[in-house]
């Protein structure tokens, strides 16, 4: 993926309102994350890569798409870093470059009948560009 | 007592039973929920990107309209509660007044008075009180072991929501005790069910939800209760997948807390809308002698 803006870290900080360097890598966020087992990069590692300036790697990882926005990470962080907002900002950058992660046409009819629309609205807002 | 009430979209469709029981129970307990006119979707998730003002237009418009009707707005869906309460807090944040002004100018609805967003459970706990509710119980749910599931959206972020203890909330447990049921210890009260991941990463939601059901089973819960339509769907409907993956899996019914409240305060069986539950709760409710 190519991104027109070369100052990705700054963009992530502005969008999320979080300071990447505020994180001291303790891992409390990650120890409470319900989906960490599925992630290639966990929340702590994601922030570490951003601290090292490797934003492209983060934007190409699956971790940011597995976040369920449960808000455990931000609640636990001793440095008041809200990782969920960082993940949200990363997703926005990818989605705004027109890379949707959810395809409404791929949803099965029986699921459309059954799943609460609250889930569809949330999913499309999180994952559609 | 009369409150302005915001039902939200899902309470009109898949979560009808959450809504309908709540309205009928309110009548029995002695307060009224007056649905606000011209409400729109709250957006289902609270936006956190600093430049995405459009995502806040829906909730801001709803709050402004509600402020024209009274000083409290009652919600019942956990997601609506979360989004509207956080939006309301942001609107009043002295450091975000420039954004607040832009949003309010855009929605062209006057904000007539400061408004408080509360949850139905807070009406029961703070305005009515457990003693009064206990007095309305005609059919105590004696012996029914209930695991109270709060999920994420009722308690986080704790600084803004201030609903209850964020790691060990007790509001639902106390309500269950007030209607005669037995609240069980439950470690995963606030562990995420996977939420909207069910749409795009179904298996991840099954895994997250399975952990919660297993934990409730460890404490011998007969049923789980929730106040979120999406948690309800994941915890209830996805047990089908859990069973398919693991033949030894033992299903546990998942109810809206308003259904049990309705049962205890004497709503008729039909009014409880138990048919909509995927895992049929009737056998276990019968076991404790409660469904006529
Ligand atoms: S809890 Fe906070 S400080 Fe610790 S690793 Fe996570 S973001 Fe960094
Ligand atoms: S908000 Fe996302 S990253 Fe943070 S703990 Fe929850 S699922 Fe994990």
Automatic annotation (TrEMBL), chain A:
Keyword Ribosomal protein: no
Listed PANTHER family: IRON-SULFUR-BINDING OXIDOREDUCTASE FADF-RELATED, IRON-SULFUR-BINDING OXIDOREDUCTASE FADF-RELATED-RELATED
Pfam families: Fer4_8
Residue ranges annotated for the 4Fe-4S ferredoxin-type domain, each copy included: 21-44
Molecular function GO terms recorded: 4 iron, 4 sulfur cluster binding; metal ion binding; oxidoreductase activity
Name of this protein: 4Fe-4S ferredoxin-type domain-containing protein
Source organism of this protein record: candidate division WOR-3 bacterium JGI_Cruoil_03_51_56
Keywords: 4Fe-4S, Iron, Iron-sulfur, Metal-binding, Oxidoreductase
Any one GO cellular component localisation term in the record: plasma membrane
Organism lineage: Bacteria, Bacteria division WOR-3
């Amino acid at each position: 993926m190519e991104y027109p803006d070369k100052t990705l870290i700054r963009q992530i900080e502005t969008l999320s309102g979080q300071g990447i360097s505020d994180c001291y890598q303790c891992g409390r966020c990650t120890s409470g994350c319900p989906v960490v087992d599925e992630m290639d990069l966990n929340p702590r590692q994601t922030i570490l890569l951003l601290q090292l300036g490797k934003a492209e790697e983060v934007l190409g990882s699956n971790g940011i798409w597995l976040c369920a926005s449960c808000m455990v990470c931000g609640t636990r962080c001793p440095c008041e870093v809200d990782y969920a907002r960082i993940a949200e900002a990363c997703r926005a950058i990818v989605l705004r470059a027109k890379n949707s992660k959810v395809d409404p046409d791929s949803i099965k009819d029986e699921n459309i009948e059954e799943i609460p629309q609250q889930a569809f609205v949330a999913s499309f807002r999180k994952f559609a560009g | 007592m009369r409150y302005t009430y915001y039902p939200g979209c899902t309470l009109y469709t898949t979560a009808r039973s959450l809504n309908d029981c709540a309205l009928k129970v309110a009548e029995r307990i002695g307060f009224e929920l007056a649905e606000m006119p011209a409400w729109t979707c709250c957006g289902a998730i609270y936006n956190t990107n600093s430049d995405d003002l459009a995502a806040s237009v829906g909730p801001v418009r709803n709050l402004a309209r509600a402020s024209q009707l009274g000083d409290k707005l009652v919600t019942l869906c956990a997601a609506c509660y979360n989004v509207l309460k956080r939006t309301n807090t942001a609107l009043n944040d002295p450091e975000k007044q420039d954004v607040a002004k832009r949003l309010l100018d855009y929605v062209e609805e006057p904000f007539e008075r400061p408004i408080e967003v509360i949850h139905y459970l807070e009406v029961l706990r703070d305005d009515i009180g457990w003693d009064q509710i206990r007095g309305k119980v005609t059919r105590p749910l004696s012996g029914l072991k209930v695991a109270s599931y709060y999920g994420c959206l009722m308690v986080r972020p704790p600084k803004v929501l201030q609903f209850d203890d964020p790691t060990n909330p007790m509001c639902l447990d106390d309500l269950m005790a007030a209607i005669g049921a037995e609240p069980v210890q439950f470690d995963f009260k606030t562990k995420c069910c996977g939420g909207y991941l069910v749409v795009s990463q179904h298996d991840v939601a099954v895994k997250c939800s399975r952990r919660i059901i297993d934990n409730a089973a460890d404490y011998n819960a007969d049923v789980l209760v929730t106040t979120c339509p999406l948690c309800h769907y994941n915890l209830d409907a996805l047990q089908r997948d859990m069973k398919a993956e693991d033949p030894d899996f033992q299903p546990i019914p998942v109810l809206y807390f308003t259904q049990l409240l309705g049962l205890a305060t004497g709503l008729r069986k039909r009014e409880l809308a138990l048919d909509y539950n995927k895992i049929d709760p009737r056998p276990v409710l019968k076991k404790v002698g409660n469904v006529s």
